[in-house]
Amino acid sequence: MKQAQQTGLVLAIFFVSGASGLIYEVAWFRLLSLSFGVSVYAASAVLTAFMGGLALGSWIFGKITAHWQQNKPSEQRSIAASLLRLFALIEIGVALFAFATPPLFAGLTSLYVWFAREVRPDPFIFNAVRTALATLALVPPTFLMGGTLPVLAHLLAAHERDRGQRLGLLYAINTFGGVLGALAAGLLLIPSLGVNGALYLGGGLDLAVAGLSFWLARDWQAERDVPAPIAPPAPSQPAPQSRRATRTTSARISGGRTIVTTNISMRLAHNGAVPGLGIQSAVSRSASILKPTQLALIGFALSGFAALGYQVVWTRTLAIFSLNAVYSFTIMLVTFLIGLAAGSAWMGRRIDHHPQPLALFGWLQVGIGMCAVIALYAFARMPTLLDMFTARTSFLASLWAEFFAAAMIMIVPTLFMGAVFPVVARLYTAPSPTDPSVATVPDQNGVGSRIGRLYALNTVGATLGAWMAGFVFIPLIGLQRSSLLLVALNLITGAVAVLTASPTSGERLRLAGVAGATILAVALLPPGVYLGFREGVIPELVYYREGVDATVAVFEVKYPPLKMSFVNGRNEVPTDRHSMRAFHLLGHLPALIRPDAHNALMISFGNGIASGAMATHPIPRIHAVELVAEQIEAARLYEAENRGVLDRPGFQITIEDGRNYLLRSTERYDIITADATHPINSSSWALFTHEFYVMVRDHLADDGVFIQWLPFHDLSERDYRDIIHTFQSVFPHTTLWYTGATHSFLVATPYPLTRDQILALDAQLQGSAAGADLGNSRLLAADLIMHADEVAAFAAHGRIVHDDRAFFMPAMDRDRILAALEPYARAAAREAGGS
User: Fold this and answer.
1) Distance between CA atoms of 100 and 28, rounded to whole angstroms?
2) Buried/exposed 459-474: b ≥16 CB within 10 Å, e otherwise
3) Most buried among 131, 537, 681, 812, by the most CB within 10 A?
């Protein structure tokens, strides 16, 4: 087989490997969100474990390739065959883990629940254990996945003549495979095959890749090395020492610890002192500055820190302008990956001929920073841009709107981010012998070892960047300033690299110009307030916080009196007439049906209006669970509507994912309410599945009552009927209630609930807060539009929604659902005697 064909096949299998890797990532993150929750702390635990495994695998497998290179330096064909077989074994290992994922994750969930129930740890210990369990779940497969790049890099880029191009192409091909895998998993595989089916498909792809790799290993033809020309050292430069000799000398000087020093290059010496530092010419003396290769290594780690920091900030901000649907993050992730892949492919074709890769690395960092500043202007104008170029009139139109917004922000800076990899790979693994700014001792351990080290440190930096952006920067200084902090990191890293490579007066002037333009652009930035539905700040905005989980904004209009709370750009707590009746029904109805209730659990506190309604009843203990902490602070602005429930004796609130809290709880409740954001929401879909309803049933007292808000704006009619059918499959005595607009409710009781029983509540309603909020019994009975048999007929053709395939798509079926409910609503009004 010709070498070009061999290379093409290796790139093809790495493309498939990248696709299966992103299928796994999407599937694993979804499964672990069901086990550990969707809170940012749970998601960060999973991300840390995932990235940590990749970094460790890259480092260790890089060392393995170095060991083989040292032991068999002249047996290139044997090494190549061994590398292919190792790659095949890695893919088999990952595939086996994919097949074992369902029972393994189920076991970890049981261990997690047992620990939470038996130990009852404080929040710090609890999050530490959650991280440890996520590590236990994900490090084995991600450790293997992290080894694929250094192994194939050693195989395809062992020779220096076109190393940058090959490494760039390898990275790009794998990332493009990831784009396909993420798209397929996020939009097609989970709805059609389910999460487990997607994992099994990914495992099958990896086994096919392993088989092809074993076949390639049998007849691999090693490439002949065409050594690059070696330029003689300049007369004034000392002959380079071997790496071993250098380290030995350094170790003796430092008492056993290695301290790497180098002479400042002639290029730096030619220009005299380093600007701004007052350091004299280094022709005749050495300084303990970093070598360019070491600067590349540290710079790539900082680049990873900034890149994932940007991803967190941009994703959080884009969520404000998106539907935040189950596919929204997939679109953002795919856009990010497309930029990385295209940038790597673009730069890979050019880098081997570039005379100053270190300076190029620096200018790429500067470019990323400048693009990030421009992105802040795009965010400020995003509502206008979306109105001009998109219209959410269909599912495909919604997809286009999400991609347009993500591309506006991410495509250009991620193109530069992707271009960084081949530049740093060339600089770190194949330094140019003709450029004194990057001259160094050739690496005797092979390219795989160095790529493993590069990738590992970049991944560690990326993990820290995501963690710091999410937990420290955004809560402390907000989205806009967090982005600007990352911009500063890019510009400083870039300036150091440029001035190290070429500290000429021209470069200093160009950098000064960039700094001045950036400062001016930052000074002219609009306020960093992102609302989603409009631009800028208006007097009616009375609260705005960018927290760990979400951005919360509250508006108050004086006339007509109206308050609205927005969470990540979505209107969550309006005080219009229909919404207030919905909140009041959610709080009052279960307490009216179960007047002797001793405790209640309210999943989703919001701004507390439903909790305040329930607190007017003589229930000794009410426990609310809320995912977004800022909603609790914003609830103080709703004290007139929520009756000051936060200060009520016996009322308790926990910041946590509601489903995960229920999973860990051992308590049984007389009343449970669920007021999740929306079925299509990425953090709420799991509250509308069969598994969740079984969990609720198991936590209800024998005569307990469960009520769930089921909105149908942006929901398809099919999904609406499916959710109702799923609910009734667990709770046979289900009734459907409708309070106007798009507010419907599913109510589960231990016995058949009839309209006559509601009409008999008149005595409880008269003179009570419930009566003031809901009216008399006739008005309340008119809201009950379907009894259990009518519910069963209405949802007869629905399917039962399971966690494995739950995928609620946004749709414009509001009018169709209203038309289907209208006959039942009219009949209920007649029977109740209402108007």
Assistant:
1) 12
2) bbbbbbbbbbbbeebb
3) 681
Q: Report the distance separating Cα 604 and Cα 347, nearest Å.
A: 48
Angstrom distance (rounded) from CA 690 to CA 589: 23
Q: Is the peptide bond before 560 cis (omega within 30 degrees of 0)?
A: yes
- Per residue in 760-774, pLDDT tens? 999 999 999 999 999
Residue whose C-alpha is closest to residue 399's, from 331, 317, 338, 314? 331
Distance CA 97, CA 27 (A): 13
Amino acid (1-letter code) at residue 486 = L
In contact, 586 and 613? CB cutoff 8 Å: yes
Q: Are 447 and 153 in contact (CB under 8 A)?
A: yes
Residue 91 burial (CB count, 10 A): 27
Beta carbons within 10 angstroms of residue 2's beta carbon: 8
d(CA 374, CA 813): 38
So what's the pLDDT on residue 295?
86
Distance CA 82, CA 86 (A): 6
| % residues pLDDT > 90 (the chain) | 65
Please check the confidence at residue 788 and state whether its pLDDT lies above 60: yes
Higher model confidence: residue 101 or residue 35?
101
Q: What DSSP string runs through 305-330?
A: HHHHHHHHHHHHHHHHHS--BTTHHH
Please tell me the pTM assigned to this model. Answer: 0.87
Report the alpha-carbon distance of residue 23 to residue 18 in Å, rounded: 9
pLDDT at residue number 445: 54
Instruction: Give mean pLDDT, residues 143-163.
Output: 84
Answer yes or no: is pLDDT of 668 > 80. Answer: yes
Report the candidate in 146, 153, 142 with the shortest Cα–Cα distance to residue 66.
153
- Whether 494 contacts 365, CB under 8 Å: yes
Q: What distances in angstroms separate CA 779 from CA 616, 704, 738, 773, 828, one per listed residue?
A: 20, 24, 11, 11, 10
CA-wise closest residue to 24 among 133, 146, 165? 146
- Element holding 673 (H helix, E strand): strand 669-674
Nearest to 437 by CA among 268, 235, 239, 230: 268
Q: Which residues of 406-430 are buried (b: 16+ CB within 10 A; e: fewer)?
A: bbbbbbbbbbbbbbbbbbbbbbbbb
Per residue in 293-322, pLDDT (tens digit) is: 788 889 999 999 999 999 999 999 999 998
Whose CA is closest to 36, among 120, 105, 97? 105
First to last CA, the chain: 83
Rounded CA separation 691/683 (Å):
16
- Which residues does 781 contact at the CB level (< 8 Å), separation at least 6? 755, 758, 759, 828, 831, 832, 834
User: What percent of the chain has pLDDT above 70?
Assistant: 88
Rg of the chain over Cα atoms, rounded to whole angstroms, equals: 30
Structure tokens at 466: 């995501």
Interatomic CA distance for residues 88 and 54, integer angstroms:
17
Residues 694-738 have pLDDT tens digits of: 999 999 999 999 999 999 999 999 999 999 999 999 999 999 999
Q: Which two tokens stand for residue 250?
A: 């350094």
Phi then psi for 570, rounded to 5 degrees? Answer: -105, 135
Cβ-based neighbour number of residue 595 at 10 Å:
12
- The whole-angstrom separation of Cα 627 and Cα 52 is 26
pLDDT confidence bin for 290, thresholds 50/70/90: low
